[in-house]
C-alpha cells in the first residue's frame, strides 16, 4: 500500500459480523438505555420513546452519509480518509483529529462507567464495603488496563469479544423488558401499572423545543454507530460489509431503543409520579428488574452494564488506535505510531498512545481536580459528543459534494435532501447544547471541545508541508486511489 513503506499494513480478516462488533460495542446500547432516557424524560416527560423514534430518523439520515462513502472508500482513518478525499487534506486532518478526540473521550467515559458499575457491584456483593470516593476510578483504571491488553491482540479476536459482550448484555435487557411487558399486560405489575400507549404521545403543554431537546438525548445514545468505518482496511469485503455493519447497527439501535424505553416508561408509570421516579432512578432496568422479576436481577444488570461499558471502552481504543495509525502513516503524527506489530497484526504503539492518554485524563480528574467518577463521566461524554457532531458534519458535507457536485452523478438527484436534513439536525443539536450557554461545571464542556478542535486547525495551518504530504499519501492509499482519479 502506498504511504506505508515501513510501517506495515493491516490484514483483511474480518467478516460483516465482526465489523458490526465494533459499531455495536462503541454505541453501547446496554449502557445507553440505562442512562440517556432519563435526560430525555426531563424534557419530554412520558414521551421518551417518541424522542428516541425521532432520533432514529435523524441517525438514519447520518448513516446515509457513511454508507455512501463506505461504498466507495475503505480507510482505517474513517472520516479522515473520507473527508480528506472529498473536501481536501486539511479538512480531512481536522475531521480525523475530531473523531480521534471523540473516541478518546468516549474511552474515558466508558472505562469510568465500567469502574462505577464495577465498584457498585462489589459493594452489593459485600466484597468491598465502605468504598472511598476514588473506588470508581480505581476499578476504571483496572478496566482500562484490560482494554489495552485486548486492544493490542489480533483484531479478529477483539471484535468477536465485543460482539459477544454486547450481545449477551442486550439479550438480558430484552428478556427483562419482555418480562416487564408481560406483567403489565396480564395485570400482575407492581402498583397496578398496565400497558399504556400514552408513552407514544406528547403530553399537552410540551413545547416543540422541549421535544427536540429530548431527541438530543436519543441522538447521543447512537454515538459511535459508525465505528465500523475504521475497519475498512481489515474487512474481507469492505465496500459491502462495512456499509451493512453501519446501517444494520443504526436500524437495530432504533428498534431496540424505542422498544426498551417504552417498556421502561410503562414500568415506572406514564403519570407524573412515574415520570419523577423514572428521572430519579439510579439504574432504570436495575430498579425495574428488582421490582418486576427478582432482587438478584438488579445485580445481574449492574454487572452487565459494567461489562457493556468495558466492551465500549475496548471499541473506543480500537477505533482511536486505527485513526492515530492512519494519521501517523500519512505524516500527520510521529511515524513511529504507524508501526504494525508483525506478531499481532495490530498498531500496538498507536494503541498504547491512546490508552496512555485516557489514563492521563482519569489521573488528572481523580488526583488533581478531585472530581468524582460520575463528574468525569458526564464531562467526557458531553465533550466527546460535541466534537463528534463536528466530525459528522464534515463527513456529511464531503458526501454531498462527492455525490451531487463532483460532475459524476451516481445517485438520484432527489437524494440530496438526505444530507441536507442531516446537516440541519447536526446544527440544531450543537445549538441546543451550547445555547443558552451552560453554567457551572458544564460551562467548561463546550470550551474544551472547541479547544480540542482548535488544536487540530492550528496544527494544519502551522504545518503546510506536512499537510501536503498527508494529502499525497492519503490519495495514494488503498481504497482512495481509484475514486480520486475519477474526480
Distance between the termini: 21 Å
By CATH, the architecture is named: Up-down Bundle
Mean pLDDT over the residues: 82
In terms of DSSP E residues, the strand content is: under 5%
CATH topology: Amino acid/polyamine transporter I
The outline comes out as: globular
| CATH class descriptor name | Mainly Alpha
Structural domain count: 1
Uncertain residue segments: 1-7, 482-487
Largest sheet: none
Describe this structure in words.
- Helix 4 crosses helix 9, helix 4 runs antiparallel to helix 10 and helix 12 runs antiparallel to helix 13.
- Helix content is 72%, strand content 0%.
- The longest helix has 36 residues.
- The two termini are 21 Å apart.
- It has 19 helices and no strands.
- The radius of gyration is 22 Å and the shape is globular.
- The N terminus and C terminus are likely disordered.
- The chain is an all-alpha fold and 487 residues long.
- It has a single domain, classed as Amino acid/polyamine transporter I.
Amino acid at each position: 500500500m502506498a504511504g506505508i513503506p515501513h510501517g506495515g499494513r493491516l490484514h483483511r480478516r474480518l467478516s460483516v459480523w465482526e465489523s458490526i462488533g465494533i459499531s455495536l460495542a462503541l454505541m453501547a446500547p446496554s449502557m445507553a438505555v440505562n442512562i440517556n432516557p432519563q435526560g430525555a424524560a426531563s424534557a419530554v416527560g412520558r414521551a421518551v420513546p417518541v424522542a428516541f423514534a425521532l432520533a432514529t430518523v435523524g441517525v438514519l439520515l447520518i448513516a446515509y452519509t457513511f454508507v455512501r462513502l463506505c461504498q466507495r472508500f475503505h480507510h482505517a482513518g474513517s472520516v479522515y480518509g473520507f473527508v480528506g478525499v472529498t473536501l481536501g487534506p486539511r479538512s480531512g486532518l481536522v475531521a480525523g483529529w475530531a473523531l480521534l478526540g471523540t473516541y478518546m473521550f468516549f474511552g474515558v467515559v466508558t472505562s469510568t462507567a465500567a469502574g462505577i458499575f464495577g465498584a457498585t457491584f462489589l459493594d452489593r456483593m459485600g466484597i468491598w464495603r465502605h468504598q472511598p470516593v476514588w473506588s470508581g476510578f480505581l476499578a476504571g483504571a483496572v478496566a482500562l488496563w484490560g482494554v489495552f491488553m485486548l486492544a493490542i491482540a489480533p483484531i479478529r479476536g477483539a471484535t468477536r469479544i465485543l460482539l459477544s459482550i454486547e450481545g449477551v448484555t442486550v439479550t438480558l435487557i430484552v428478556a427483562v423488558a419482555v418480562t416487564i411487558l408481560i406483567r403489565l399486560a396480564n395485570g400482575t405489575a407492581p402498583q397496578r401499572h398496565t400497558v399504556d400507549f400514552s408513552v407514544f404521545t406528547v403530553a399537552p403543554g410540551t413545547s416543540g423545543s422541549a421535544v427536540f431537546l429530548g431527541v438530543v438525548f436519543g441522538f447521543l445514545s447512537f454515538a459511535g454507530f459508525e465505528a465500523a468505518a475504521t475497519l475498512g482496511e481489515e474487512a474481507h469485503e469492505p465496500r459491502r460489509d462495512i456499509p451493512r455493519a453501519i446501517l444494520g447497527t443504526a436500524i437495530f439501535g432504533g428498534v431496540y431503543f424505542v422498544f426498551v424505553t417504552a417498556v421502561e416508561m410503562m414500568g415506572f408509570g406514564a403519570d407524573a409520579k412515574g415520570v419523577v421516579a423514572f428521572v430519579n432512578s439510579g439504574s432504570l432496568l436495575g430498579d425495574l428488574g428488582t421490582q418486576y422479576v427478582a432482587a438478584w436481577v438488579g445485580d445481574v444488570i449492574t454487572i452487565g452494564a459494567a461489562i457493556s461499558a468495558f466492551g465500549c471502552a475496548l471499541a473506543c481504543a480500537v477505533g482511536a488506535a486505527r485513526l492515530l495509525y492512519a494519521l501517523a502513516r500519512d505524516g500527520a503524527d510521529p511515524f513511529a505510531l504507524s508501526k504494525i506489530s508483525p506478531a499481532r497484526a495490530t498498531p500496538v504503539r498507536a494503541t498504547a498512545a491512546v490508552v496512555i492518554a485516557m489514563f492521563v485524563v482519569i489521573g488528572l480528574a481523580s488526583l488533581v481536580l478531585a472530581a468524582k467518577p460520575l463528574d468525569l463521566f458526564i464531562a467526557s461524554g458531553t465533550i466527546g459528543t460535541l466534537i463528534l457532531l463536528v466530525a459528522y458534519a464534515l463527513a456529511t458535507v464531503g458526501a454531498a459534494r462527492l455525490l451531487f457536485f463532483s460532475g459524476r452523478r451516481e445517485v438520484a438527484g432527489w437524494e440530496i435532501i438526505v444530507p441536507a436534513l442531516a446537516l440541519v439536525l447536526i446544527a440544531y443539536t450543537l445549538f441546543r447544547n451550547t445555547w443558552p450557554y451552560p453554567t457551572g461545571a458544564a460551562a467548561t464542556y463546550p470550551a474544551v471541545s472547541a479547544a480540542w478542535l482548535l488544536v487540530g486547525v492550528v496544527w494544519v495551518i502551522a504545518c503546510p508541508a506536512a499537510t501536503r504530504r498527508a494529502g499525497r499519501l492519503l490519495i495514494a492509499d488503498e481504497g482512495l486511489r481509484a475514486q480520486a482519479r475519477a474526480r
